[in-house]
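[step 3/7] fold_predict: job queued, chain A
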Amino acid sequence: MKKNILIISGGLVFVLFVGSIVIGDRNRKRERITSKLLIALNAKIEPVKNGIGSQNAFDINYLDNVIQKVNGQVLALKESTAEYYAKQIKSGFLPWYKGGDDEDKIYSVFRKLKDKVQVSQVAKAYQEDESKNLIDVLKYRFGKDEIKIVLDIVNSKPNYRTA
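[step 4/7] structure written:
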């Protein structure tokens, strides 16, 4: 009698164990599919915010990539100048109790830059100074209209300039 109860209990534990593995695996598959769907929906809903992430100009290694591909000298900012512009952008991000962000100040910094290499250098200086990615900060602080203005400014610039 006790032997039968132990066998039945062991079998029940085994069935529950296998069932939990199967259900857990199915839930993980659903979560992956849901995640992919949400990413696709987000790209359709907010293409402007997602567009800023696809900009080469905000890649901190863009200058290195251009130098490898281009014959000749690529014009670039001095490191101190890039740091200055990064600090100007940072100073444009104000808390709500100080009037909120100064978008015009940030736009003016991007307008002063001559090409996408310089945008990349400023993004790199911003990340080194603030330990935050400029793309992520822009996505968080700006609405899609403000991001569209930044993208329009950056897209109007050439990829690089040579000496």
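[step 5/7] annotate
The chain has two domains: 1-45, 48-155.
Residues 47-51 have pLDDT under 50 and may be disordered.
exit 0
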